[in-house]
User: What shape does this take?
Amino acid sequence: MQNTNHLLGANKYVDIICDIWVPLSFDEGTLMLTNDTLDMDLTDMDEIDDLKTANVRLRYENNFPIGCIAKAVFLDENYTPLTSLTQDLELKAAEVNANGFTTRPTNGEMEISLNDNWKDAMKTKYILLQTWVPNETG
Assistant: This one.
């Protein structure tokens, strides 16, 4: 078999990239939890002397066909919790077709006051964003 060209051989690779669309299905009692730490340095903000209150504005796009609840925890440079938002955030599910496939993401925006916790939040280096799909008991 001399002079035979092979499509695949030693030291040859094929990269395959594909999109897979699978409808998600959850039954009652299912719990999905994610944690993501985001860089967010607010330490320069504590130099503002006349600051009386602070609000957090959250904009999101959800491409999943399920809604979820999110909580934001403010962390210092050692990842130690300083404070958290005073209420959980409800992220609405993306629109789905009759087969359960996402047809359009849902966008949302909410603004939450830090109330008396704003001074602690000004020491923030990171934000831990925890999201979960509530089960039957919450």
The chain has a mean pLDDT of 75. The helical segments are 118-121.
